[in-house]
Amino acid sequence: MRFLQNLLGCTALALLTGLGSAFGPRWARYQNDLHLAAMLGMDADSVLTNRSSLASAIDSLAETSAVVAEYANIPIDHRNPGRMYRNRYWVNDEYYQPGGPVVIFDTGETNGQAFADYYLVDPTSYIVQLLREFHGVGLVWEHRYYGESLPYPVNGQTSAAQFQYLTLEQALQDLPYFARTFRRPRLPNADLTPRSTPWIMVGGSYPGMRAAFSRLKYPDTIFAAFSSSAPAQARIDMSVYYEQVYRGLVAYGYGNCTRDVNAAYRYIDAQLANPSTAAQIKRQFLGPGAEQNSNGDFTAVCSIIGRHGRALGQMACGVAPAEGWAPSRGARSVVDRWAAWPGLSRAINSIFETNCNCPEETCSCDLSAPPADPLAISWSWQFCTQFGYFQYQNPRPHEIASRYQTEAYIQDNCYRQFPDGMSSGHLPRRPRADATNNYTGGWNMRPSNVFHGAGQYDPWTPLTVLSQEPWGPRRRVTTQIPACNQEQEAVFGVLLPNAEHVYDLQTSYQPGEATVQKGAAPVASLLREEEFNGRS
């Protein structure tokens, strides 16, 4: 899911990228690439139209990494543990000294290899910094159904019956099962199991959810957790995503650009509402064949401008008048500039494996095909069955997304991705968000020994335990270190001002570095507790 460098890129559309990571399945590979690019210090712009540069950087990282993948046999179904699959993980034990913890970095909804190569080796990673400070063993854990940790092959033919074991409940049981017998050949006399060694889990975004939930559900395994930008409250209606983007743009002084984006979408939606003009606007953006796509599919892929757009420097917020360009030049002028961006078709073709707006070749601009990327398929299953997080148009008057991005459209993506899902009984008609919250407690959960972090303008903050929305829990937030193993009403954590998604785990971001230190302080306090073996 997530670290973007162009926080204050010169266009409003670039800012939409900087304001958070989308969990949407159609964007899974793209968001993963952006996370990797930021982790490696690369310009995020280059990833969009030149993925080969990122691939080369990842290859170079792997060549210099000393960590080797290992595999653990894990039950496919913890309720009936007869059949096993191989779950991948990586370890760095070079900093270990007796009494040190095991620090787990959970990679969540992605392939874990590049993250292991970085987080267990690079001296700037917060995992390595924690290992050095506390003399611990580092463990990167790959989530079931991602990367090479596959109970079944993941592709367009994977059945809903095979996906039934990809649940939050099953995935949370994997680490406790593994931890019971964890040992290192280089440390034959060290008992590294949770019986004698504190296990500290760190994660941001979905892995941040897993870190907090693991402490909540399996406190005998996970002694403490650092949970960053974790939308613990499952929710189908995630229209607040774009409302947060709007708030951030206005706060940064780019209200003029929100008005232009609003005007552009109103114009596009009006064209799409009329069959005589819908085909024309689609061809204007994506060329011949684009008119065959539904309004939902068309506006979904065009929202790439809302996720990446620094190349549109000509429409700079800083030189636009206070009211934006639309009042003086018209909404159509804004739309024309949007459609004329030369990188638009290249970006869409790269992400969605299409051939739209092709000048010299046979065009293929079918946007209806479900994602073929295994990461996107697996996350789609979790998205469609348990979490929801449907990101559609935010309410008037701040809307900065198309009105064709609706709950019904996003739900239809679930049906398209898993055509046998409903008939098999494994895909619910709608995501079972309420059941998920009943299992975890959602944003009302109160696990002890957990530090929470979030960014003020992260689109996911409204669903975290730190949410201050009028319709949220609005719990008191404190940085005072709580007593070990004792739940409390207040949330132990920090809401970083003017920050976005997982910024509190970026040591290169100065407030984030301070937050890492705040998160490390309670870990140190907990590790000094003499009654570790009596924890609960």
From TrEMBL:
Which Gene Ontology MF annotations are present?
dipeptidyl-peptidase activity; serine-type exopeptidase activity
Give the signal peptide range.
1-22
Which GO BP terms sit in this record? Answer: proteolysis
Q: Which Pfam families match?
A: Peptidase_S28
Query: Would you say which domain of life the source belongs to?
Result: Eukaryota
| Keywords for the protein's UniProt record, in alphabetical order | Glycoprotein, Hydrolase, Protease, Signal
Protein family membership: Belongs to the peptidase S28 family.
- Could you tell me what this protein is called? Thymus-specific serine protease
Organism, per UniProt?
Coccidioides immitis RMSCC 3703
